[in-house]
Structures are given as C-alpha cells and as structure tokens.
Design brief:
single chain; 4 helices; 148 residues; Small Protein B, Chain: A; alpha+beta; seven-stranded antiparallel sheet
Length: 148
C-alpha cells in the first residue's frame, strides 16, 4: 500500500468519527496521472447524489504523456464504489446534524486505487487551539526525555 495523496487539513479541521474505504471510478489517463502522484485532495469533499457517493472537487490534472483531451475537467465529480450497506449507513450518519464526509487519503491497494474518507464533525477554533497546545507539550516532554 503506497500513499499517493493526503489531506493534511482534515485532521486539523475535523474530528474524525468513522473511516471508510472506497474505490474510485477513473478514466485510463486519470489512473496514470494519479499513480504518478498528480492528485490534490485540497478542498475536496464527498457528496451523496441520488444515494450514490461522489468525490467532488478533487483535482486530477491530465496525464502529461497522453494526447490532448477535449473538454477534460480536472475537478469533475468522480463516483465512489461502496457496498449498499455502507451507503445506507452513510446516509443515516449524513442526516445527523453537523456531520460531513471528508476525504483523508488516496492510496494503491494491490493494483487498485482506493480513497479513505471519514464521517467527521467540524472543530471549533478553541478545539484547534487545544490540539496545538497538546502537541507542543508532547514535543517539550520528548525533548526533555531525550536529553536524559
């Protein structure tokens, strides 16, 4: 399993509750582009349209060695492949107040490209400050223990 892209802001801006793994429907030149690491999850999110999950606003530029492709949109919505039971549970959780679906990372599993996303709850500004304080205190403790 090699990680191709991570959404670093997801852990900082959201409290991750449940994680899911889904396949992504891509065209051939998009697969080559993603496997070379040309994908950005910045500002992307997962939506439910007609009870089907879609990855929205993820940027996959065209493969540089492919020919010119007419009407190619690098930020188009891409369908996610999940089991029906997982989709039903997502619909139930999405209807809960204040929950959203946030992509975490894109990686390869054998020869397939997978997306890991989470049901998340947005953090308030004071929650983010507490996380920063905890991280800084852990760093100080590690530094002091390292010197002994």
């Amino acid at each position: 399993m090699s990680v191709l892209a991570k959404n670093r802001r997801a852990r900082f801006d959201y409290k991750l509750l449940d994680k899911y793994e889904a396949g992504i429907v891509l065209s051939g030149q998009e697969v080559k582009s993603v496997k070379t690491g040309h994908i950005s999850l910045k500002g992307s999110f997962v939506t439910l349209k007609k009870n089907e999950p879609y990855l929205t606003n993820a940027n996959i530029p065209p493969y540089e060695h492919a020919g010119e492709i007419k009407n190619y949109d690098p930020t188009r919505s891409r369908k996610l492949l999940l089991k029906k039971s997982e989709i039903k549970s997502l619909i139930g959780k999405k209807q809960s107040r204040g929950l959203t679906l946030v992509p975490i990372q894109v990686y390869t599993k054998k020869r397939l490209i997978k997306l890991q996303f989470a049901v998340a709850q947005g953090k308030k500004q004071y929650d983010k400050r507490e996380d920063i304080k905890k991280r800084e205190s852990q760093r100080k403790i590690k530094r002091s223990l390292k010197n002994y």
